[in-house]
Amino acid sequence: MMNNAQRQLSRRDREQQLDGLIEAYWDERSEDFSKLRQKELSGPCGAAWQAYLTGKLAVDKPLKILDIGTGAGFFAVLLSQMGHQVTGIDMSADMLHQAKQNVLAAGCSAEFHKMNAQELDFAAETFDVVISRNLTWTLPDVMQAYREWQRVLKKGGRLLNFDSDYGLVTFSRKEDQADVHANIRQELVTECNDIKDELRISTHRRPEWDARFLRDLGMQVTVEEEIAPQVRTDKNMQFDTLPLFAIIASK
Fold this sequence. Notes:
Layout: H1 4-42, H2 44-57, E1 64-68, H3 74-81, E2 85-90, H4 93-105, E3 111-114, E4 127-133, H5 142-152, E5 153-163, H6 186-198, H7 208-216, E6 220-224, H8 228-231, E7 245-250
Parallel strand pairs: 1-2, 1-4, 2-3, 4-5
Antiparallel strand pairs: 5-7, 6-7
């Protein structure tokens, strides 16, 4: 029988394995994923997101913003266009390549680093804002991620996290080219489901769990249960039907 130290080591080893699997999954999806983000940026959704973020940031000066899980650079493009200084990080090198290309194509600038969202290589109190979209549901240790995100926020800084409660969902392959899950191999869909079901965050009901944990860290938290109607405004794109929640937490 394993003792507590052995169980802890075993769990850390498995979390590292999951990190590798998740990285490989997003590497393979990067090109198709980037095409979807380009469509989102150039359509009504891009303008809708900018309007939403302008309201939440509510400042008239450039902010230093960390975009965690930047993916193909969706937020990096939007926030740079809004005049902010953006640093984007992602575990997937292929996604970062797409992000750099999308930022260049948009005629704006951002800094990118390959980095684990749960182990940030930044000093404490570096950023005015930490932002993330559709990332936390993929992380092996969301509690550690939130601790790190709080650490790098300046006092009075703001965390914006947008995600959905994917724990009860089983993903399936889509044929419709307008769907966000189009063109994904069935093997990759199966792998996505297997990884998701193994992650601890999938056992929690969200965003209630997130809000409770962030408050325990001492942050002031506001939750918006469903913002999809405000930001998913392109009728030619088919998005997930789950509510898209927003967590706004101040340090």
